[in-house]
């Protein structure tokens, strides 16, 4: 059958594709002339009289075509026209694909790589080239890169793979497609393969865009290239294209150019292991893994802006802090464990040990020995410096031992809060790609069921069938026995990565935040300075991140009896028992726990009540709590100074306000201008990047009282960076003053202001700012003012409409709750409007405001705004 | 300037003629009935009568064109004759008479195909997708006017949205009348955000467009109070001002639209149908606009707030 067909220009009117970029190019090849359809902005740049600084050579995969790169062509051309870096963008349809010629031949990988070289030669591309590739087009692009190393200036890859390890099978969807009877029918005979690919959009592709991808593949003859491309995947070692794949996979190891890997995590074929493989082959690639994007990442996210911004500054910021600053974090995190290795004093008390029974008391001597034995045992079990170890262990002695053992041998601990929920936890753990998982039964069962990667180590000894079922390779007892008396490996360097902590995920998927040893040391020291915690201090730590630092501080720590997955169930009695167990003078509570502790105060026995009078410092850590709650805690612990700090996973202790500060502020603030979180703690600098009229924090970060803007912070105990989130990393560190002065800065994404006394007030999240035609409204102030109305339990401020001309809308929950959402009646609407202090287009009443899963206290304004937009558009009045 | 205001016997026409007069211009009004505008030269005639129109534009520096057939139903030919041909004739006559400025009073419905509008700016008039004869013919008229824009003939199109105020026989009187009769439906939840224009603000915006015509000609602007409110709140506000009960019963918007479509198709009488699809859409989907360009270009801001407007309306009913 002769399937040959000439090349053609695409039909006009394909969404987002500027037809002026389309051209046909004839290339002489092995005695024949082949015609390519190419998208190329060279002519447009010439019209604009702009000389490009280089070429982006974009290669689509299978079964897409150059249409995939339309946004990059448009964005690059617009950037050039606006005076930015000018890139020529050349995106061909590979032969047999898209609108290029159907030659009737079957193309293999080496042929495709050669084809591409012939095309670039014909086009006269001789300056610097950045290859951009997706899917199997990524392999062809990297093949070109290997063959043109002298011209190559960078690599951008989107969900691609260059290596198929012989021992691991290709992913199931592809295996299926490769079965001979399936192959022909699914790829050419019917458009099944094409349709299956087009169904991978997250969110789904709009119909007209799908049609555009289908346009060149109407009819089985036109889809022959799709079939042949799939058949050319070198899944088996003996495949004819395998040597070429291996050549490319090896060749890219020697390319000394910056590389950017943009990765959609929800790809059924190009899974994370291919990202890991590419990561290991390329020289210091920048990585951004989009948890919500899939195989069609170029459709799912704005990769074009990301790539262009990266190209302007491709070298990732060199990690500073190779040497700890003087006076900071000199001592390693385990130094107290070494110091007190022979002390019989109490280090830990577990009020409700996992094995059941009475409280478990662990001395410094025992803890210190356990950590050393486990450290050596883990080393013997193959845990190496730089390996990632996911800790799925409830707080207590086992978690503490595992944590310090890992830190001591330079393994990186991955800590995700069970409060993320199983789905969030699973995404976090798999995204962090642990080499080992240490867990109790529930964690290991989840690891097995959800196929989280990594060797599985159990904290307890389980029966053989359970071990087999869960794939457990060792228990703590065995490891400690193996490690007994064995030498420890060298200590990690201060600048080595120590931990990946996951954010709450209240604003999108949880992000992995990377800390080095020196940063955790600085955090320990900041806690010690701020709250006077040191060797011998009795500490009840109900807030996970700070609880882990107890032994590093030398504190005698107690873990109260509580359900860790549900901190809101902690009772006053459990806190009192923990206080009594270690004569605690310092108590850290998570904000979710505070309300229940206060609520259960009535059931305290006189003894327990007495125990609480010994507390000198009580802290609601993690998120600021309402004044009434803080008052309640203070009443429980009459000798204590109650404080509420401000921080986030990226900077766990930034400011701290005492109850007295908060009381004072309630008098001072006229009408509520946010939540007072106090002055910066020692060693922290807070600045404000003022908001412009569009609601963007474009101002130079500065200390100007009364100016609202994004809160920007600097401290030695800030995070080092993000895990494989290059774009997030840049976002958090962008701005003129951010690199100056040798300090590291973090943009918090919160808005607020400083007052004359240098105290910080938080006014909400930057993404929740409402940008009206008259100006910018930060949500917390109006919410507080509305919340002061006696009939209102809680209020949320939402913005509807396009930014810049948004309308502000108040949504309230009443003390006497309504059954169904509705518009507020005239009287309530008027009261809310006059209380709000900002113009409100509408006032809605709901049974319950949506709150974020983790804190159950923060109003989920993103969700609220989406709901309000629907309702105020005229759609059905559903619940938010 | 000597300014011709057509359609000055209507609520907006009278207010606009007065505003232009107050700005110190000489005003001539032109319509079938007496305009009743103090201090203006009142010329009566028909927009579809070329001789009348020629007389009206003679000696004028500017035209503010409000005359139109405004209705929710009726024979299509009548809409076309007044709104399209009437505008065409006036444009030609004005240019022939050496008029230099032309403010075409239009409607946001010329660019509206029935979806909700949330913070949108004035898009191009689109006769093909506009809903109802009024919107369709006004869309054609606006395109004609803007096509006629030339260096010596500055055309601006201004689209006030849902004009209301004391003395309004269209929107306010009908709402009040139906509410009195218990026939005012609340569509859906009544939460759709609607932006309206208090009469004085619409008039001052048209006067501002006249002043700024040389700088902003060739463009279309939507004019509103810039204070969208849920439609139920607006209706309740109007009813409260008039001292009648606000609407209580509710019709699902989809059903209302379907019924309205039927009515529109078969209704060719003189009276207004109880509900047409256009009105159903107007009252059940969001209609509010980005006013930034309008305010900046016309150097205008609405002087009367929504709440102040309701107070003035209540005062007028109390008299």
From TrEMBL, chain A:
Residues 55-298 form the AB hydrolase-1 domain. InterPro entries: AB_hydrolase_1, AB_hydrolase_fold, AMP-binding_CS, AMP-dep_synth/lig_dom, ANL_N_sf, Epox_hydrolase-like. Residues 347-722 form the AMP-dependent synthetase/ligase domain. It comes from the Bacteria. Keywords: Ligase. Transmembrane segments: none annotated. Belongs to the ATP-dependent AMP-binding enzyme family. This is Acyl-CoA synthetase.
């Amino acid at each position: 059958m002769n399937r040959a067909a000439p090349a053609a220009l695409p039909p006009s009117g394909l969404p987002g594709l500027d037809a002026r970029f389309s051209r046909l190019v004839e290339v002489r090849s092995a005695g024949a002339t082949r015609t390519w359809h190419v998208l190329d902005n060279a002519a447009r740049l010439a019209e604009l009289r702009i000389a490009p600084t280089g070429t982006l050579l974009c290669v689509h995969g299978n079964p897409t075509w150059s249409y995939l790169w339309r946004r990059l062509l448009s964005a690059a051309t617009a950037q050039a026209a606006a005076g930015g870096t000018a890139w020529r963008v050349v995106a061909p349809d590979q032969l047999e694909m898209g609108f290029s010629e159907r030659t009737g031949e079957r193309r293999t990988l080496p042929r495709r790589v050669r084809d591409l070289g012939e095309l670039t030669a014909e086009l006269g591309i001789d300056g610097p080239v950045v290859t951009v590739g997706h899917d199997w087009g990524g392999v062809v692009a990297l093949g070109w890169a290997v063959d043109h190393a002298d011209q190559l200036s960078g690599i951008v890859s989107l969900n691609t793979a260059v290596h198929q390890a012989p021992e691991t099978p290709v992913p199931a969807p592809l295996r299926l497609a490769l079965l001979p009877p399936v192959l022909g029918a699914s790829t050419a005979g019917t458009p099944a393969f094409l349709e299956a690919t087009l169904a991978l959009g997250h969110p789904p592709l709009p119909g007209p865009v799908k049609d555009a991808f289908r346009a060149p593949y109407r009819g089985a003859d036109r889809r022959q290239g799709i079939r042949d491309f799939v058949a050319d995947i070198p899944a088996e070692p003996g495949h004819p294209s395998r040597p070429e794949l291996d050549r490319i996979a090896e060749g890219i190891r020697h390319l000394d150019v910056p590389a950017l890997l943009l990765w959609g995590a929800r790809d059924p074929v190009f899974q994370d292991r291919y990202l890991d493989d590419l990561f290991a082959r390329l020289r210091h690639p920048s990585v951004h893994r989009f948890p919500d994007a899939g195989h069609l990442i170029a459709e799912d996210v704005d990769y074009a802006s990301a790539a262009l911004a990266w190209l302007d500054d491709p070298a990732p910021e060199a990690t500073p802090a190779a040497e700890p600053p003087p006076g900071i974090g000199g001592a390693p995190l385990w130094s107290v464990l070494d110091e007190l290795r022979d002390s019989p004093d109490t280090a830990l008390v577990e009020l409700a040990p996992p094995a059941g029974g009475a409280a478990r008391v662990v001395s410094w001597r025992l803890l210190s020995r356990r950590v050393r034995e486990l450290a050596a045992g883990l080393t013997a079990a193959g845990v190496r410096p730089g390996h990632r170890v996911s800790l799925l262990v409830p707080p207590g002695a086992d978690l503490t031992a595992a944590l310090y053992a890992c830190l001591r041998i330079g393994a990186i601990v991955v800590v995700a809060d069970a409060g993320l929920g199983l789905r969030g936890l699973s995404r976090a753990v798999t995204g962090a790609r642990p080499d080992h998982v240490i867990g109790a039964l529930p964690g290991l069962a989840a690891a097995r069921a959800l196929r989280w990667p990594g060797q599985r180590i159990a904290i307890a000894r389980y029966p053989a069938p359970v071990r087999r079922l869960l794939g457990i390779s060792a228990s703590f007892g065995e490891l400690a026995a193996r490690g007994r008396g064995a030498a420890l490996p060298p200590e990690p360097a201060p600048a080595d990565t120590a931990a990946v902590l996951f954010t709450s995920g209240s604003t999108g998927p949880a992000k992995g935040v990377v800390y080095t040893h020196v940063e955790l040391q600085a955090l320990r020291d900041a806690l010690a300075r701020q709250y006077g915690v040191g060797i011998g201090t009795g500490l009840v730590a109900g807030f996970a991140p700070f609880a882990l630092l107890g032994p590093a501080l030398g504190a005698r720590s107690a873990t109260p009896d509580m359900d860790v997955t549900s901190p809101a169930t902690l009772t006053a009695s459990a806190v009192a028992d923990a206080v009594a167990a270690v004569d605690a003078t310092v108590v850290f509570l998570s904000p979710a726990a505070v309300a229940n502790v206060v609520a259960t105060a009535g059931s305290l026995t006189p003894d327990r009540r007495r125990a609480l009078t010994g507390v000198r410092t009580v802290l609601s850590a993690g998120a600021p709590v309402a004044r009434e709650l803080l008052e309640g805690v203070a009443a429980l612990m009459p000798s204590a100074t109650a404080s509420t700090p401000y921080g986030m996973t990226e900077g766990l202790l930034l400011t701290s306000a005492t109850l007295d500060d908060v009381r004072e502020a309630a008098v001072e603030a006229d009408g509520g201008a946010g939540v007072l979180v106090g002055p910066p703690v020692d060693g922290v600098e807070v600045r404000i990047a003022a908001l412009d009229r569009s609601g963007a924090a474009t101002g130079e970060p500065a200390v100007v009282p009364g100016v609202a803007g994004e809160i920007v912070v600097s401290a030695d105990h800030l995070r080092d960076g993000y895990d494989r989130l290059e774009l997030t990393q840049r976002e958090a560190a962008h701005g003129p003053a951010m690199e100056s002065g040798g300090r590291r800065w973090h943009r918090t994404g919160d808005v607020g202001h400083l007052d004359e006394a240098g105290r910080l007030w938080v006014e909400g999240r930057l993404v929740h700012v409402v940008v009206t035609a008259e100006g910018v409204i930060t949500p917390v102030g109006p919410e507080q003012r509305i919340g002061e109305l006696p009939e209102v339990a809680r209020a949320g401020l939402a913005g509807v409409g396009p930014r810049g001309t948004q309308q502000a809308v108040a949504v309230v929950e009443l003390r006497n709750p309504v059954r169904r959402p509705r518009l507020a009646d005239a009287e309530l609407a008027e009261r809310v409007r006059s209380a709000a202090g900002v113009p409100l287009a509408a006032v809605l009443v709901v049974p319950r405001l949506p709150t974020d899963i983790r804190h159950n206290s923060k109003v989920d304004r993103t969700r609220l705004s989406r709901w309000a937009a629907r309702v105020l558009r005229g759609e059905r009045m559903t619940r938010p | 300037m000597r300014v011709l205001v057509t359609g000055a016997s209507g609520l907006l026409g009278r207010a606009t003629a007065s505003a232009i007069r107050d700005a110190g211009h000489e005003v001539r009004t032109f319509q079938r009935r007496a305009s009743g505008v103090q201090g203006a030269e009142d010329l009566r005639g028909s927009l579809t009568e070329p001789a009348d129109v020629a007389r009206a534009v003679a000696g004028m520096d500017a035209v503010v064109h409000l005359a139109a057939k405004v209705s929710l139903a009726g024979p299509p030919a009548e809409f076309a004759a007044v709104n399209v041909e009437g505008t065409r004739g006036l444009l030609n006559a004005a240019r022939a008479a050496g008029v230099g400025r032309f403010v075409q009073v239009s409607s946001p419905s010329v660019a509206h195909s029935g979806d909700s509008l949330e913070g949108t700016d004035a898009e191009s008039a689109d006769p093909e997708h506009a809903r109802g004869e009024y919107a369709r013919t006004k869309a054609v008229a606006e395109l004609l006017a803007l096509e006629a824009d030339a260096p010596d003939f500055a055309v601006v199109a201004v689209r006030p949205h849902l004009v209301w105020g004391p003395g309004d026989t269209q929107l306010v009187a009908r709402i009040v009348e139906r509410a009195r009769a218990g026939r005012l439906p609340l569509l859906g939840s009544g939460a759709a955000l609607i932006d309206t224009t208090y009469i004085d603000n619409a008039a001052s915006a048209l006067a501002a467009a006249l002043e700024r015509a040389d700088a902003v000609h060739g463009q279309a602007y939507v004019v509103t109070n810039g204070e969208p409110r849920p439609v139920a709140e607006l209706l309740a506000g109007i009813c409260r001002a008039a001292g009648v009960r606000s609407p209580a019963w509710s019709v699902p918007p989809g059903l209302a639209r379907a019924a309205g479509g039927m009515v529109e198709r078969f209704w060719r009488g003189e009276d207004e149908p109880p509900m047409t699809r256009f009105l159903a859409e107007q009252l059940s989907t969001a209609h509010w606009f980005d006013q930034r360009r309008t305010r900046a270009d016309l150097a205008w801001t609405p002087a009367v707030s929504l709440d102040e407007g309701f107070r003035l309306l209540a005062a007028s009913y109390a008299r």
